[in-house]
Each structure stands twice: as structure tokens, then as C-alpha cells.
Amino acid sequence: MNIPSQFLNCVKVLGYKSASLFVALLGLFSFFRHTIQAETVGKVDVGAAFIHLDILESGHTVKTIDMPAIRADANYCFWKGFYIKPTVLYGNGGSKKGGIFTGGLGLGHYTPLNSCFAVAPSIGIQYTHIWTRVDFPFFALENLQEKFKSWSPYLALELYYTFTPGWRLSGSYQYAWSRTKTTIEHIVKNSKSKADGPNYGILLEHDLNDQWSLNLGAAYNISLSKEKHGIRASGVKFGVARWF
């Protein structure tokens, strides 16, 4: 689902090396491509989303952030099935919970297999900024600002199935490697770490006419460091697309 997918790398740090963060929404809602017609060269998709994000320490949830979000992306086929895909996602759960911003750019190739099926392998990179608030009661510290900033290269494969004219179903598998800097107000400054993990997604799309379509999708991701610190995220998205 173009949502990111589409979505979406957090840790707490106290007395141990900061676990790295990979945005679960990296590919969240990113599977959206149309069965290409000769005259179709691109697509712009804007949608409303809802994100559920769990922050994990040693595999256990220590904080949850639920937030509304907006996702926008463009898809431009520039040469013989090769396309570029810029994406932007912004979500905000309020001043006490936090939010997320991601921006990325992908390069892929759309390959029809027959009249019903097509595949699209791609590579790309995404920047993510997550912010939240954290308490340390043992030290009488409360409401400290916590930030995570990461760069995440990824590989992805998408499968598209046109099961009847005007209706498509697509699925996506994506794997990313993230390098993250974590900052906690007054405690930690630019602690570096690494994490990696997969993203899974599914999208249903329906054409209203030759220029407009609607889509509904969902995605799930988990990304952990070796110490099992990281994030688990899921989300849904409803979008409106304009073809040109």
C-alpha cells in the first residue's frame, strides 16, 4: 500500500549500548504499481493512514505509539519498465506520544509475466526520524525527549495480480538494513547502532476510470538488533491515485 507503507525504529537507552532502529514503515504501503498501459507513464498517490508502533527492549514492548498519518508518493516510468519512486510519510500521535517522518527514493523495474501477473524488483534508501518522550523514574527524570534518526538501504520484490479488469491485488516483501543515531535529552547523544528486518504488505486497488483509482492496504514489519532491541509496526492505509 503506498504506505508506507506506504511506514515507519525506536529504542530506550539506559546502561547499555543503544539498539538501532529500523522504520517498520520503510516499505509500509509501498506496493502500488498499476498494470502498465502504453500511454501510462506515472502515478501520484496520496492517502490517509493509521500506524501502530511498538518499541521493544530485549524483545519486550516498553512503549506503544498509535498515530494517524498521511502518505504521499509518486511513481514515474522513465525507460523500458524502469521506474523511480519517491515517498514521504508523516505521522503524529501528539506531544506526549511522539511521531514519525520518513522520506525515500527507490529504483525498480516493472516486468509483466502475462496478462494477469507482473513482478517488480527494486532497490532504494530511506531516511527516518522518530521522536517520542521517555521517563527514567529511578533517576527522577521524566518527559525527556528521545529521537531516532536512521538511513536504511533496502531490497524489495513486489508481485501484482489483475484478477478482473479494473481490480488488482499486490503483495510486497522488503528487507532493510538500518544505521541509527539515538539521542535522549540530558542522557545520550548520538549513540550509534544497527538493525535489520523484513516488511510484508498487501494492497487491493480498483480503477474508477483511466485516470483515477482507489486503494486499501495493510503492512507489518519487525526490525531488531542482535540484542532484540528495536521496533514492531503495523498499519493500514486508504489512498486515492491519479494516473498520467
Task: Report on the architecture of this protein.
With 244 residues, this protein is mainly beta. The protein has a single domain (24-131, 149-180, 191-243), classed as Beta Barrel (Lipocalin). It is 0% helix and 70% strand. A ten-stranded antiparallel beta barrel has the order 1-2-3-4-6-7-8-9-10-11. A hairpin with a 4-residue loop joins β6 and β7.
Q: State the distance separating the first and last CA atoms.
A: 19 Å
The strand order across the widest sheet is 1-2-3-4-6-7-8-9-10-11
**What CATH first level would be assigned?**
Mainly Beta
* Overall residue-averaged pLDDT value: 83
The level of helicity is under 10%
CATH topology: Lipocalin
How many beta-strand runs? 11
| Tally of individual domains | 1
Largest sheet: 10 strands, antiparallel, barrel
- Tell me the quaternary state: single chain
Could you say what the CATH architecture is? Beta Barrel
Write down the Rg.
Answer: 18 Å
Spell the H/E element sequence: EEEEEEEEEEE
Low-confidence stretches: 1-38
Q: What fraction of residues sit in β-strands?
A: over 45%
Shape: elongated
CATH superfamily: OMPT-like
Category by helix and strand content: mainly beta
Count of DSSP helices? Answer: 0
Brief descriptors of the model:
244 residues, elongated, disordered N terminus, 70% strand, mainly beta, 10-stranded antiparallel β-barrel, 11 strands
In short, what is this structure?
By secondary structure, the protein is mainly β.
